[in-house]
Amino acid sequence: MTLTAERVSMTFGGLVALDDVTLAVPGNRITGLIGPNGAGKTTLFNCLTGLYAPTSGRILLDGRPLAADPAQAMRGGVARTFQNIRLFPGMSALDNVLVGRHTRIKQGLLAALLHGPGFRKSEAAATERARAELEFVGLGPEGHMPARSLAYGDQRRLEIARALAGDPAVLMLDEPTAGMNGTETADISALITAIRDRGIAVVVIEHDTKFIFSLCDHVYVLVRGRMLVDGPPATVRTDPRVIEAYLGATECSK
Ligand SMILES: Nc1ncnc2c1ncn2[C@@H]1O[C@H](COP(=O)(O)OP(=O)(O)OP(=O)(O)O)[C@@H](O)[C@H]1O
């Protein structure tokens, strides 16, 4: 599946946050989105996840318009994590992932109340899948623990497990390494690569350009609402326009 922004512009009052931005996010690829403060990254992210309706242009998932409604976008296959952790702190890690799984299950209220065999079977399958996602992110043994008692890095992995449980075609990660130490960052890199290898399109916004250039298959650079340049990391990080506009010569040449 490919998520596309087609000539997207977004204005807030008189302020142009995005100006004619086009990008394509295919499966089997980790796409990075970087840019200086105020470049429009979060605004683009919000358009791609259905939180904002662009002022003009279109967001398409495999050629079909994506609803400007986060719940519908999620059901359509676009999942996200947030800059700030948004778990249910008192619930177990497993139950947090089950919440993600339930976005996919079509059991009505009546079925839940009656607790019939169909419902029980579907719940058992959901629990199995939730356990599998916990294993996948490296939290297999922690399923019973309240989310709040997990280490910070583990809470971020739990958020990713919850997003994966909804069977996304595209996973959008907003600053997934914010506040992490070097080891946790390396672990998250490996996890994101494993997600890509499942065929899921991954989009990462990060301020840590070193992380983006070493992780991503393709990088887009936004500057003042416009897409300045995109390409493989090796090309983008040495592009003089990027060095001048965003990174500063010394940073980018590292
Ligand atoms: N809801 C809003 N209302 C008004 N202006 C907004 C709104 N959201 C963003 N903006 C403005 O749009 C521009 C782009 O902001 P955005 O947050 O998308 O940039 P960013 O690249 O994510 O920045 P940062 O790296 O600092 O998070 C900024 O000038 C910002 O002030």
Automatic annotation (TrEMBL):
GO terms of molecular function: ATP binding; ATP hydrolysis activity; L-isoleucine transmembrane transporter activity; L-phenylalanine transmembrane transporter activity; L-valine transmembrane transporter activity
GO biological processes: D-alanine transmembrane transport; L-alanine transport; L-isoleucine import across plasma membrane; L-valine import across plasma membrane
Alphabetic keyword roster: ATP-binding, Nucleotide-binding, Transport
One GO cellular component term: plasma membrane
PROSITE patterns: ABC_TRANSPORTER_1, ABC_TRANSPORTER_2
UniProt keyword annotation of Calcium present: no
CDD domains found in the cross-reference section: ABC_Mj1267_LivG_branched
SUPFAM superfamilies for the chain: P-loop containing nucleoside triphosphate hydrolases
Record domain ABC transporter: where: 3-249
The name this protein goes by in its record: Branched-chain amino acid transport system ATP-binding protein
Lineage of source species: Bacteria, Bacillati, Actinomycetota, Actinomycetes, Streptosporangiales
